[in-house]
Amino acid sequence: MTAIPKAYEPAASESKWYSRWLESGCFLPGSDSNAETYSIVIPPPNVTGVLTMGHVLNNTIQDILIRRARQAGKRALWIPGTDHAGIATQTKVEKELRQEGLTRHDLGREKFVEKACEWRDTHGGIIFEQLKRLGASCAWERNVHTLDEGYKNAVLHTFVELYKRGYIYRGLRMVNWCPASLTALSDEEVIMKPCKSHLYKMRYEIAEEPGQYIEIATTRPETLMGDTAVAVNPEDERYKHLVGKHCWRPFPRAQIPIIADAAVEKDFGTGALKVTPAHDPADFEIGKRHDLPTIEVIDEHGILNENAGEDFAGMDRAKARKVAAKKLEELGLLIATEDHDNNVGFSERADVLVEPRLSEQWFLRYPKVEESKDAVKEAMIRFWPKRWEKTYLHWLNNIQDWCISRQLWWGHRIPVWYRKDADRNDPQNIHVSVEGPTDPENWEQDEDVLDTWFSSWIWPFATMGWPNEEAMQTHELSKFYPTSDLVTGPDIIFFWVSRMIMAGLEFMGPEKETLTPEDIQARMPFKNVYFTGIIRDIQGRKMSKSLGNSPDPLDLIAKYGADGLRFGIMSIAPQGQDILFNEDCVAQGRNFCNKLWNACRFRQMSGEMADNSSIEAIAKRMDAKFFDEDDHAILGQLTQTLDAVNKQLNEYAFSMATQTLYNFFWGDFCDWYLEVSKTKSPEHKATSFAVQDLVIRQLLLMLHPFTPFITEELWHLLGYGPEDSFIQNASPGTAEGLSTALNTCGITLKPEALTTVEKLRECVSKLRAIKAQYNLGAKKDINFFYTADEADHACISAHTEKLKSMAGAASLTRTDDVKEAPASITPLGTFYIDLASAVDIEAEKTRLNKELEKLKGLILSAQKKLENKSFTDKAPEQVIAGVQKQLDENKAKSEEIIKLLGSFTS
RNA sequence: GGGGGAUUAGCUCAGUUGGUUAGAGCGCUUGCAUGACACGCAAGAGGUCGUUGGUUCGAAUCCAAUAUCUCCCA
Hints:
elongated; RNA-binding; four-stranded antiparallel beta sheet; four-stranded mixed beta sheet; 29 strands; alpha/beta
């Protein structure tokens, strides 16, 4: 046994234990095939990403769950991995190329992908090292990346299967186009932001009635060159006479028809809508219904092209808006420019205005939508907190086909080949397979890659080897799927959670049109989804690089230790509420660890360590006849804590569990039990040490999922486990289990001891308070007198040493009557300080009167309650008894005060 | 426009089916080197639980309005 240093030094301990854990392979699921399994798949971070506070929260929770499962003896598997983050990574690589004056096209596809791989391999994987610093106990040997060979095949297989099953199709559609990344985006990747824009009101001349005009309102005058109609609502009386006629589009000047379409809102603007089928989704639909021509005037970069006329060609869309408005004004066609608030789509990654653009893309009609709803509605998959179910169901109820193709080179290239120089609309000329055609020289592959989310929606089973039979065997998919818990943020409920559910239901069983509840149960990817809050700064802003308001978790670890960071963040993470992060909580976590360290250090310093190898070994060191109320109480509180923490963790109430542990350890164990144990007589010491050892043992076990490093360190320092075994191999167990173990060793806990201890504690607190009031706080030689009934007197006598030591008293003497002395009414009688002559009688009277007033209020409200017949008839007995007890106590106290006041003669 | 969430001490937040005197940490005030811990110990100040109604013997808690903030969807 080594002596414990004065302050806990996390750094050395953390690196030591992490490498020992890795060496031993203890993060891998054991081989006991009878054991229950438990599994989690990590939400794959971006391969080139670095650890954020969000990751800290999310992965600490996963680590708590997996470590707890391991302690419970389950075969626990936490699969780590990363995704390739198509747009983000490609953008970074292209940026690097630009510094060399190159574009990806200069390199060509093959070279570019090579370069991107290189870039990923040098910059990637940092996050794994960071997660290790945090203590994450992932099965690193099982690390998966979405572009790994096996995983890649799984992604392509998914595409091919869904294509065969009729869920995937290619079509010319209006999509969300990102002019910065030059790719289509899914609806989910578009962020709507409120913008201060303008509503331009302009007029087009009626061709058939020169001099007559139709007024049109638009927020986008820069697209008017692509207008191919003006539309009004068929019910709109104002315009009925114009439908079927034409008006003049001012530039390039051309006649366009005035049509009627129900999609036009009568009340918006002027009720007349300019129709630009190439640049607006709603207009596109109108165009299809009325067979309108489609004129593209904005190119893929957001620049106007030659169709817009020579005045506009080559101009950026933002500038074109101003120029178009000016031109309208010059032509006398602009009637008004009004301020207008609207919501405009921005691309999630590049944060630029998304341009609706007509293009050929691949779409997925989602499979198993109804079953996915049922899985959650029927609580086969449970959401924590439950309210996210609404968001999930709402999305599924309004689900739109998913645009899965991206115009990128970094990702999974779509496994579709077209016969060279042949009609692509003829199915004969399309080949879809994972391997590709056998005569590749006659085919050309689709240029696009798949959305990154298309690779991560199969994460729960593709990480376990699917669809390769052999790999599924070695990875034990049949044992670890469905996974147990998923921990993620609600911001990716659509991107990821719902899609994983659909993918699981579609693929984790034979192809089937509709599923039974049993099928759903067997196929669903996880049983519980815990949604974390979003970490914000103290002003409530999201943490972001650009704001610079996000602390680097590694700095925090260096400053406070990984355990401090983990405990701190868990203590402020309320269930499903956003978190305002403040470094103070990490300091508190660090302080907690240091307190734990010192409690153990104190135990080690106060007496020889003995056999701590098991609960029974420790219990055998206890002698029931040396048990006092404090021993009973602390062990009783320990059992309560065991059950409370188990219950809280079963309900994912992490911050509550930290609170429970904190209160028990700091409040009950350190502040009281350890302190009173200092006064124990020599023959009581051995038993008291055993009690301390037992409490510390169970505490370390309960704390281990939260603070793995320090608990492992102390576990070994105090000799709880053999050298070659880890704390993860022991379970904190339950209250019942502990009581039984104690019983068999001849210890039966007395629950009523807790009441006595509460009285003693309150009594001590009162004595300290009255000392402090008279500035005697630091003095230990105060003589107290007290009046008490026989029962209280007996209790005081039994605990005299304890009371004296804790309150800082030289003596406690029972007496009949004391006059003109400061007094305090405690649950064990009225205590007087003997300094009669020095007392400021007036001040003492004021103090007592103040207390009396407060008591009077309490007495009155209790009396009123008890006199109320409805209350006594209807309230539960316990509540009535409680009020009665409170009333009696307060009455006694107030009588005591009145007596004290009477004792002041002046 | 639709939906979710929040509103409790100076700050950040607990408060689990309504029930005994509404709690914690930080901060603040005062005192303290006490058989481990100043990353500590002790004592204390500080709250009309956003507002208004309602249900109830009883409301921070349930219901309805309302205000403010926030998120998501359209």
